[in-house]
Amino acid sequence: MTNATQMTSEQMLAMIAKLQADNAALAAAKPAARSITMKVGEKGGLSVYGLGRFPVSLYRSQWERLLAPDTVDAINAFIKANEALLTVKA
Of 11, 69, 77, 79, which residue is the least packed, with the fewest Cβ within 10 Å? Predict the structure, then answer.
């Protein structure tokens, strides 16, 4: 790449067009939604990635309690009862 002070206007326009095309390609390549991934951490906990900025990490017994059918039903009922108060994040 040459120094910007030594570039002709045609070279600058060509560089701008290339950078705009590169930017558009990068924007189009972004995934629509992050996928959910899981990992076992050093201390034996299960970390779930892709829900937010940080992973949600719990030990197996905690996941089992959280995902038990009666707990899931209670969580869903709570969400339904508090729909107006809860924020939805994409």
Answer: 69
Q: Which two tokens stand for residue 9?
A: 């206007």
Q: Which residues contact 35 (CB under 8 A, 6 or more apart)?
A: 50
Handedness of CA 19, 20, 21, 26 (dihedral sign): positive
pLDDT tens per residue, range 23-74: 988 888 766 667 999 999 999 999 999 999 999 999 999 999 999 999 999 9
Residue 50 to residue 34: CA distance in whole angstroms: 6
Q: Alpha carbon of 10 to those of 15, 65, 81: distances in Å?
A: 9, 65, 63
With tokens 């067009």, the residue in question is 17
Task: Tell me 57's DSSP state.
Answer: E
Q: How far apart are CA 74 and CA 80, in angstroms?
A: 10
